[in-house]
Write a structure and sequence with these properties.
With 167 residues, the chain is of the alpha+beta class. It has a single domain (5-166), classed as Thiol Ester Dehydrase, Chain A (Roll), CATH 3.10.129. The chain has helices at residues 5-12, 28-37, 48-53, 65-68, and strands at 18-26, 102-111, 119-135, 138-151, 156-166. Strands 1-3-4-5-2 form a five-stranded antiparallel sheet. β4 and β5 form a beta hairpin. It is elongated, with a radius of gyration of 18 Å. The chain starts with a helix and ends with a strand. This is MaoC family dehydratase. Residues 15-158 form the FAS1-like dehydratase domain.
């Protein structure tokens, strides 16, 4: 599939499209495993008593935990993964699933409130922009998404703007 004005217009037709899905319950074990995997040593991420003594309901999730996870179920079988290791079923709103290479292009995060163990999260993702840019090896498209992570009461805990590059 050619990365050109025609593909850009197809993608732009999805601007404003939103998907919402539950990430489920964020557990203490999930937080501790992620913190350990990224080399965090802050006791807020491991010790519930320490976190409670500092005014939190339970252990606190490292800042980028919820944005770093691309799939919140048990994971796909190897034959159901793309060459880059992302599940084939993972679909970004408005993007083609075949014929282009999809890469991360950066992310800005705004933290509104800490996410603690025991929080049930929902992610709302909206395509907000798409543009065609020239590159050394041809054109590429940059698509921007806004992700809002809210608790079960609807309170926004984290907002991110993520860019995805199509080549």
């Amino acid at each position: 599939m050619a990365v050109d004005e025609a593909l850009l217009e197809t993608i732009r037709s999805g601007i404003g499209s939103r998907i919402t899905h539950s990430l489920g319950l964020i557990t203490g074990l999930m937080i501790r495993r992620y913190a350990r995997a990224v080399g965090e040593t802050n006791p807020l991420y491991y010790d519930a008593g320490y976190a409670r003594d500092r005014g939190y309901a339970d252990v606190v999730a490292p800042p980028n935990l919820v944005t770093a996870v691309s799939c919140w179920d048990e994971g796909a079988a190897e034959e159901d993964l793309r060459a880059d290791g992302v599940p084939k079923a993972v679909q970004l709103v408005g993007l083609p699933t075949t014929g282009v290479r999809v890469m991360g292009g950066g992310e800005d995060m705004e933290f509104h409130s800490p996410i603690t163990a025991g929080t049930t999260l929902v992610e709302r993702s909206t395509m907000i922009d798409a543009e065609l840019r020239p590159g050394r090896n041809g054109h590429f498209i940059v698509v921007s998404y806004r992700h809002e992570f809210v608790d079960d009461s609807g309170k926004t805990l984290l907002t991110s703007t993520r860019k995805v590059i199509l080549r």
